[in-house]
Amino acid sequence: MFRTHRTDDQGETRTVQKLRARLAESHQLHDLTSDPLLHAVRLERFRVSVTRSMWFFLALGLGFTTTGVHEFLAGHLTPAAALWWGAWLVEPALAGILVTLLRWEAEMLSRGLAVDAAPVVWLKRLLLGATLVTNVWSSLRPPSGRVEYGVVFLHVVVPLVVFLIAEVMPVIQHRCNAARDRVMATAAPMPTIGATASSAPRPALKLPSHLQAVLGTKAAQVREQGRAITPADVQAAVNVPDAFAAQLADQLNAA
């Protein structure tokens, strides 16, 4: 005896209904995962993750080089000398300047501004060059008088790695931002936010619903202050390039 599948009023079996539901879900997932702004958000999160990792390893490298700088300045002294204690502050001070400079570079690059001015480049090279020289010198002239070639190798490689990390980080920022902007430039147009399609003077950016909600909340707060929405207000709510922020601000003000 053959077993038959149950059917609904339209003559579809349960298997067909399940496949139809899966197909509908697949279409919805494809529409969501292929949204350019979703890719832009993923790129931004990836940039933040890579940047944090680079900061972490940069801090580890600077922690190692601190011992070399101290050895160079006060390796022949004892803790009874004031310089022995003060020497521990030299490399953290230099590293603090470098970290502050790198943070400024990252912020400027995230806004699409170049940071290749000669004083900036030379300041980074001076800070990292001083770290390299002091570390190598202290390893070649240890207080014990015995040169350990493994220690010399580390005191050469680690400062060089720190130097290259400092040079690579702006490149990472720039390329990730360029990739994000390229993805956002492919965003399909949609009706103006807060207005009907017929009233839109020009195509608008396509924003996911959660970003529209965040932007709408920010727009309401600005309107309560009795002023027009600016690109800075838009960027305070959502992370978008300047051109897109200006367009969104015009759309919200028109709406």
Automatic annotation (TrEMBL):
Task: Please give the name of this protein.
Answer: DUF2637 domain-containing protein
Which superkingdom is the protein from?
Bacteria
Q: Any transmembrane segments, and where?
A: 55-77, 83-102, 122-140, 152-172
Supply the alphabetized keyword list: Membrane, Transmembrane, Transmembrane helix
